[in-house]
Structure formats: C-alpha cells, structure tokens
Amino acid sequence: MCTYHGHIQTPADAIKLFEACRLGLLPRVQRWLSEEEKKSIKSGSVYVWDEQEARLRRWRDGRTWSSRRVSGGFRIYQEIDGESKRG
Question: Pfam families from the xrefs (predicted)?
Fold first, then answer.
C-alpha cells in the first residue's frame, strides 16, 4: 500500500512521484489503511492519494503527530515520541 519508500528532497521529486502515480507506475492509496498496514508505516514511507478517489481528506494512522511546519514547499510533520493513540 505504501506508494514509495525513501526521501523526497525537492518539489521536483514530489512532482515526479505524483506523475508516476497518475500514470499508474506507482500505487495510490485508494482506501483507509487496515490495522496491519498502519503497523507497517516506518520512517521514509510515502503515501499518495487523490482526495476524491479515496475519499480521504486527512491522514489517520492512529499515531501522534506534531503540528505542521512548512519547509521549502513541503508540509513537515514529526511523530511525537513514537506514541500511539491506539494503545
């Protein structure tokens, strides 16, 4: 279910990722993640989805995230202490 695993450094990298998804070369998230899929999220996991297609407006994985900060055209979130709301 993960679209890509790695580091995205520039907006151009992100655009390439989006284009690969648009062309069907990389998978897009098309539904809420299962509990098993949520457990597999790790640093570097990238998930791409179309809000209308997947009916996903906000990312929900049961983890605690910092407030967003903007850096070079990206919204950056950090997981807080690896804590989980699930348990």
Answer: Gti1_Pac2
Q: What is the pLDDT of residues 12-26, one digit of tens each?
A: 999 999 999 999 999
Structure-block tokens of residue 3: 């679209």
Beta bridge partner(s), residue 29: 49
Closest to 54 (Cα-Cα) out of 39, 68, 38, 33: 33
Q: How many domains, in total, are found in the chain?
A: 1
Q: Domain residues for 67?
A: 4-84
The neighbouring-strand residues paired with 63 are: 84
Q: How big is the CA angle at 43 (ends 15 and 39), to the nearest 5 degrees? A: 110
Output the pTM of the full model: 0.77
